[in-house]
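Budget justification aside, the reviewers requested a transparent look at the raw inputs and outputs of the sequence design task funded under Objective 1. We therefore reproduce one unedited record. The lines immediately below are the structure tokens for a 310-residue chain.
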């Protein structure tokens, strides 16, 4: 695990050269096809050396949920063990990790027509109106969700309309996770200094733009079946470029917002990780703040993994 731009993919590839391991991606954006640059998806060369499961398995028009991930990941874990290899789960979507390990409510899967009807109502009457509708059927969820948080409002109201049961009630009916089923080694990678992470985030976002992020999002923007309220388009970087293409902000503002949103994502990821039980840290800097070489980072990870797996 680790915040965005911390070096997860590079460490995972190095581990695969030392261990009989297969990578399972734990990333809510990498599942979508046609979203390569803005998600920092491994290149074809990198994937040839270290294949990833659960990449490019959905069209951006098809939402992918934590429940979908748990079902898919469980199957991949079983398949990898059946081949007498080690599943190596890699990513920064903390909700996916938590749901897989601790369990998730068996609530109904998303349905495009129901979600679209809610979004259409919101476009006509505003998201606070959707919040009011939710409060009438699920006051507990409405109290937790901001009136303008479109994605969470949509999901909460969708769950009720599909099942007749409030989201808050579903969330109290958790399905068991996999924490007790396997021997887990949990690692987090990050620099010691938050400034280093911020610099990496800024450099990487600007590099994504140089590599054609705007052109990539433009292909999505020109599709008739996509809108900014879909989970794929809400991904960090994509939403900011989408707003730029829609003429809502200028280029410089888009760049500024894209970097800021990525830093906020990293902050949320680190907040999750600081309270994570059973986690070992692999820092990419030494105590003096000097950056470590990739082989030094790998050695630190192996020193944690090997004693725990003997």
């Amino acid at each position: 695990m680790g915040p965005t731009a911390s070096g997860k993919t590079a460490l995972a590839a190095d581990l695969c050269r030392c261990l009989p391991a297969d990578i399972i991606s734990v990333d809510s954006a990498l599942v979508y096809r046609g979203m390569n640059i803005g998600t920092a998806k491994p290149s074809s060369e990198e994937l040839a050396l270290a294949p990833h499961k659960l990449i490019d398995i959905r069209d951006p028009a098809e939402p992918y949920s934590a429940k979908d991930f748990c079902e898919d990941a469980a199957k991949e874990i079983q398949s990898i063990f059946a081949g007498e290899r080690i599943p190596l789960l890699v990513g920064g979507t903390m909700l996916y990790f938590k749901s897989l390990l601790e369990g998730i409510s068996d609530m109904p899967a998303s349905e495009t027509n129901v979600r679209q009807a809610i979004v259409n109502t919101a476009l006509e009457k505003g998201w606070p109106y959707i919040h009011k509708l939710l409060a009438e059927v699920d006051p507990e969820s409405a109290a937790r969700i901001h009136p303008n948080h479109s994605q969470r409002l949509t999901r909460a109201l969708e769950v009720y309309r599909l099942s007749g049961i409030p989201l808050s009630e579903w969330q109290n009916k958790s399905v068991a996770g996999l924490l007790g089923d396997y021997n887990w080694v949990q690692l987090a990678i990050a620099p010691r200094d938050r400034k280093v992470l911020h610099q990496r985030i800024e450099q990487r976002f600007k590099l994504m733009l140089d590599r054609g992020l705007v052109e990539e999002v433009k292909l999505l923007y020109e599709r008739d079946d996509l809108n900014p309220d879909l989970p794929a388009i809400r991904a960090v970087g994509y939403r900011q470029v989408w707003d730029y293409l829609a003429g809502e902000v200028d280029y410089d503002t888009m760049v500024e917002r894209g970097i800021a949103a990525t830093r906020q994502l990293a902050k949320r990821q680190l907040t999750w990780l600081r309270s994570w039980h059973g986690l070992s840290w692999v820092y990419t800097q030494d105590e003096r703040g000097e950056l470590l070489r990739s082989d030094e980072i790998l050695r630190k990870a192996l020193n944690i993994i090997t004693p725990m797996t003997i």
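The domain at 112-172 is CATH 1.10.20.140 (Histone, subunit A). The first strand starts at residue 21 and ends at 25. Computational costs for records of this kind are itemized in the attached budget.
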